Amino acid sequence: MRYLTKSRFKLAVECPRKLHYSGKKDYRNTKQEDSFLQSLADGGFQVGELAKRLYPGGIEITAKGNAEALAATAELLQRENVTLFEPAIAHGNLLIRADVLIKTGSSLKIVEVKSKSFDSSDPQIEGKGGLLKAEFKPYIEDIAFQAYVVRSAFPDSRVTAFPLLPDKSRLASVEQMNQLFKIDRSGDRVRIVCDPKADRLTTEESLLCEFNVDPYIALVHEHGLNTPSGVLGLAEASRQWAEAYANDEPLPASIGAQCAKCEFKAPLGDALKSGHAECWKEANGWSDADLTEPTILDLWNFRGKQKLMDQGVRRLAEVTQEDIKLAPGSNGLSNSERQWLQVDGLPIEHKSE
User: Fold this and answer.
1) What is the rounded CA–CA span in Å between residue 33 and residue 25?
2) 20 to 30 A Cα–Cα from 326, which one of 22, 83, 190, 262?
3) d(C-alpha 199, C-alpha 314), whole Å
4) Residue 348: strand, helix, or coil
5) Residue 301: burial class (beta carbons within 10 Å; 0-12, 13-18, 19+)
6) What is the spatial distance between Cα 35 and Cα 38, in angstroms, rounded to a whole number?
7) What share of the chain is helix, strand, coil (3-state, %, to 5)?
8) 329: how many CB neighbours lie within 10 A of its CB?
9) What does DSSP say about strands 59-60 and 81-85: parallel, antiparallel, or unpaired?
10) Separation between Cα atoms, residue 327 and residue 321, nearest integer Å
11) For 278, what's the count of Cα atoms within 13 Å in the CB-facing half-sphere?
12) Is 323 exposed, middle or buried (0-12, 13-18, 19+ CB in 10 A)?
């Protein structure tokens, strides 16, 4: 079965069409080739291994196959009280592998381990109008999806959600803690080699802090998910995306300024397919030849791309001086003059109105 997992859910929030390209080897995916993103992932692996030391007696679900992991999880959840690492929970076509799941009687506590730091004395997660701040929004939506799956799978249980995050308000008492968790890439998969000292770390020494986010999850359900396809309720979005992914059906291409950062973009003539090109051809009725011309996405250091796209602007040549608010610089070329040179290709004074 093709499940909508938490990583695919996050991808769909960025752009639902990405689900159609995800995991397909014939499509270019620049995120799989990004060494910086790999370094961030390494940090996540280290924090995850540290977190396991904070829940003694926890049992890790080591099965990699979905069916085996689901069966192992279901069997262990028959116990009255149990702590599980990487348990598999499914509801229909939705599947999560939670970092930590703690069962106490009829209560289930989800713990999502993140390397993103926060200040427990002043979290600043909620912004104006009850909306989540941009820097925390993906993390809260991630755990909101997990909580939704667990609540759907266990409707009679009380489900709570807690990210486990590095707390900036705490002072480190252990120097170079990351050196206690070495990254080993010698095999087919990443392995963490732990120093024996790591087993003696206390919660305070770890600098990690549990933080209840149930009120913020309620905000996700209240305001919905803001996607390129529009605002969708979490439950409805999960249903739509899971159905499309299960059937390998591409969702409509909703192009916008976000396309500039699309990881499924390949240069013309590349051996691999370009999801970005497929979206732009579908949305604009373009051919391959149309893709050779610069688009609004190529405009340097311009924050009004989405506004112009909403007005129907697609090609760089369609941008006007009024669009970029062309104005001279006091010392050298202004930002708008540089942009106009990119659009126009000739010095300003050589152009007629």
Assistant:
1) 13
2) 262
3) 56
4) helix
5) exposed
6) 5
7) 45, 20, 40
8) 11
9) parallel
10) 9
11) 18
12) buried
Amino acid 266 reads: A
CA–CA gap between residue 100 and residue 56 (Å, rounded): 12
CA dist 64 → 1, 70, 79 (Å): 14, 10, 22
Q: Does residue 226 come out as left (phi exceeding 0), alpha (psi in the -120 to 50 range) or beta? A: beta
Nearest to 9 by CA among 257, 253, 239, 249: 239
User: How many alpha carbons lie under 13 Å from residue 220 in its C-beta half-sphere?
Assistant: 27
Helix (H) or strand (E) holding 71: helix 66-76
Task: List the structure tokens of 44.
Answer: 């996540």
Residues, the chain, total? Answer: 353
Binned at pLDDT 50, 70 and 90, residue 188 comes out as low
CB 227 within 8 A of CB 16: yes
The pLDDT of residue 204 is above 90: no
- Tell me which residue of 168, 154, 162, 58 sits closest to 111, measured CA to CA: 162
Strand order in the sheet with 59-60: 59-60, 81-85, 100-104, 107-113, 158-166, 208-210
Q: pLDDT grade, residue 37 (50/70/90)?
A: very low
Is the separation of the CB atoms in 117 and 166 below 8 Å?
yes
In this model, does residue 205 exceed pLDDT 70? Answer: no
> Is the CB of residue 207 less than 8 Å from the CB of residue 166?
yes
3-class state of residue 92 by DSSP: coil
Burial class (CB in 10 A: 0-12, 13-18, 19+), 253: buried
Residues in contact with 186: Cβ distance below 8 Å, sequence separation at least 6, in sequence order: none
Looking at residue 179, what is its pLDDT?
A: 60
